[in-house]
Amino acid sequence: MGLFSTLFTTAHAKPVSSVTFTLDSATHTYEDGNVGLNATTLAITPSDRRVAVIGLNGSGKTTLLKLLDGALPASTGSVRLTADGTDYDPSVKRDLKRIENFVGRVRREEIPNSYYKAPSIREAIDQPLKKHKVPESERQAIIGNLFAHFDLASVAREPASALDGEKRHLLAIASALSFSPAVIVADEPTKGLDEIASAHVAKALFSYDRQVIFATHDTDLITRSEYAIDRTLVVDGHDVVFDGTPHAAVTFYTDLIRARYEASKA
Known about the structure:
The chain is of the alpha/beta class. It has one domain: Rossmann fold, CATH 3.40.50. 39% of the residues lie in helices and 24% in strands. It has 9 helices and 10 strands. The strands form 2 sheets. The chain has a 6-stranded mixed β-sheet with strand order 6-7-8-3-9-10, with helices on both faces. A 4-stranded antiparallel β-sheet has the order 2-1-4-5, covered by helices on one side. Helix 4 packs across helix 5 and helix 6 runs parallel beside helix 7. The chain starts with a helix and ends with a helix.
């Protein structure tokens, strides 16, 4: 698990090393009555190191990710996370608190509001670690290694408001990793970036030693061999309609979009 796990093991509960996500006929309907996801049954195991989720806007990608990471409860059916052999139910408050420790959430370039109040991004990440009584030497090692990996060292003393889009995306990922989760669940972690910045963020994310489950519209990204995406889900009409390899998924998705376009002209 690397340096961060070693650091946290010394003074805190042993970090989770592997997580299995299980959805059993799980659905979510929002309070306004809009369906986010129809009944979905699937499992994502630790062997699925890089899982992409693709689909049109409004198809249900974000709802699926939020069910996986516990941000939304299942309206019907169930969601279960099994961490190192122990089952957790995100609908149970005590379990959800534990889940938030071993599943890191990334929402595009969104960072905690508190980060904008801190004098610098280094202090922004340091403050919650300090609040959890992580010793200073460990905090500095965690921040130093995160900032080195995500190319944030040169702006460590800058306030969050001074960062460009690429650096905000990188900081959002680094923030999610600060407590050494076993898995990152990321909703469009390269959204809005140009091709060069997107590649930089993707390389930093996928070269980090964590399981990653992420949503994207970038079909080129998921088929590039250097990112080693091994499984892709296609979501359409609030259903998971395809589950397979990236290249097969992109072919399926392209045909789906073409069929929609042809139908719209008829």
